[in-house]
Amino acid sequence: MNKITKISFGSSNKHAIKQHNKTNNAKRSEIAQNVIAMVPVRAGSTRVPDKNTRSFGDTNLLQLKLSLLKKVEGIKQIIVSTDCQVSADIANKEGVNVQWRNEYFAGSSVTNDQHWHHIADTTPGNTIFLAQVTSPLLRVSSMQAALNSYLSLDKNDSINSVSTEKKFLWQNGSPINYDIGVTPKSQDLPEIVSLNFAITIISRQIMMERKNVVGQAPKFFELDKVESIDVDDFIDFKIAELLYEERGVEWLMQ
């Protein structure tokens, strides 16, 4: 249960509250003016060759993501971080900036913490909206809602999209989210979520300090099964493509 603190609205308290709101509004305005959408794409992909630029319906994953990001209000600049000339050409055609990534940070041996620190270190602005092209069914309305939520945060320091996992999970020969002696229905399993990385919004400074995309006090933004689809292999790619062709880009733009 949330703790509710009563406030006495005397004249001094009214002034303090007014000043607090004014400071918060100024801070949010500064943050809102410096939101950078960073789109990391590299040339190599072992499971789906040319995944980011190969044909995906009537488009490709990179071009689709850029066209959707341009519909999100509050993003100051879109940058494609890449080592791939084809990706750079697509970015230039879409009118967004290109940041060339060096060979090590575009390679498969780089760890996630190194990758995230590098992204934060090389991104301008105060706030990073990390946009993965491998979440092609993420709608504009969800991205907009997540950004709006971030700009109104008080106690949380990042927005991270998640998926609910209603599955019977096991590790090392034992169930980890239910009692096998009293097996529940799947809908009655505990609320466990997994990061799907479709939406990440975090301050550049915190991302650098933590070498991670999750803040100290994250706020989770839940996505449904369709929007949270992550293209990791050919099966994911084909499923996402079929859903894209069925629903159309107009659905994504909503």
Please provide a written account of the structure.
With 254 residues, this protein is of the alpha/beta class. The protein is built from 7 helices and 9 strands, in the order αβαβαβαβαββββαβα. The strands form 2 sheets. The chain has a 7-stranded mixed beta sheet. Strands 6-7 form a two-stranded antiparallel ribbon. It is globular and about 60 Å long. The two termini are 35 Å apart. The N terminus is likely disordered.
Helix content: 25-40%
Question: What is the β-strand count?
Answer: 9
Main CATH class: Alpha Beta
Task: Give the terminus-to-terminus CA distance.
Answer: 35 Å
Beta-strand percent range: 15-25%
Our count of helices gives 7
Global outline = globular
Arithmetic mean of pLDDT? 89
Show unreliable segments. Answer: 1-24
CATH superfamily, by name, is Spore Coat Polysaccharide Biosynthesis Protein SpsA, Chain A
Q: Tell me what the CATH architecture is.
A: Alpha-Beta Complex
Q: Give me the strand/helix succession.
A: HEHEHEHEHEEEEHEH
Largest sheet: 7 strands, mixed
- Helix and strand content put the structural class at alpha/beta
Q: Determine the oligomeric state from the structure.
A: single chain
Q: Number of domains in the coordinates?
A: 1
Question: From the alpha-carbon coordinates, what is the Rg to the nearest angstrom?
Answer: 21 Å
